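Researcher: Please predict.
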Amino acid sequence: MHYLFSIREDRLRSVIKISKLILYYAQLALSLQLTKKNYMKISKDKFVSVTYDLNVGENDDRELMESATKESPLQFIFETGTMLPAFEENIKNLEAGSKFMFSLTPEQAYGEFVEERVVELPKSVFMDNGKFDDEFIVEGVTLPMMNQDGDRMNGSVLEVKEDVVVMDFNHPLAGEILHFEGEILDVHEPTQEELAMMSQAMAEGCGNSCDSCGGDCK
């Protein structure tokens, strides 16, 4: 009896020892995986989450235009055409926790202000069921439009006259130097859910939460 009990006790100790080893290596593998994720650098097709403040203007005469916070960050998939190339170039190879501060010239961002992009359109363009919508088409509103080639563009209503609507098809930040300052919150391989979310956002409009970072919408 004592001999059999001793054998069973030795086997139990071996099982416990093996279990501890398995648990140790599992924890080690998880630690290595988390470390790899935490130190992943921004590169093509990575899911990126950032905070930022965007100011425009020169020297002390700067104006805060928009912000992305930790509670509502800018999220995008890197180098998929949704962001300004110059914006992406300035955060490339950064990792979670990295801070950034840079400026983009009009040539790197949305170009100079072009007078020819301010046009007068006949009110008939904005008719709905034969009636001009004077409650919606008002000064200051931005409208999604499409040209004869089928290209999408946004236009701002500058003035509503008797027969025409004065529209500005320059980007709202055309001619401005953009000053960005922020922090990288997260960098990882996108999940299927995140890929679907980004695809849906692209299908519904021009991109993402950063109105002044996106590359497709004018």
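Model: The first helix runs from residue 2 to 38.
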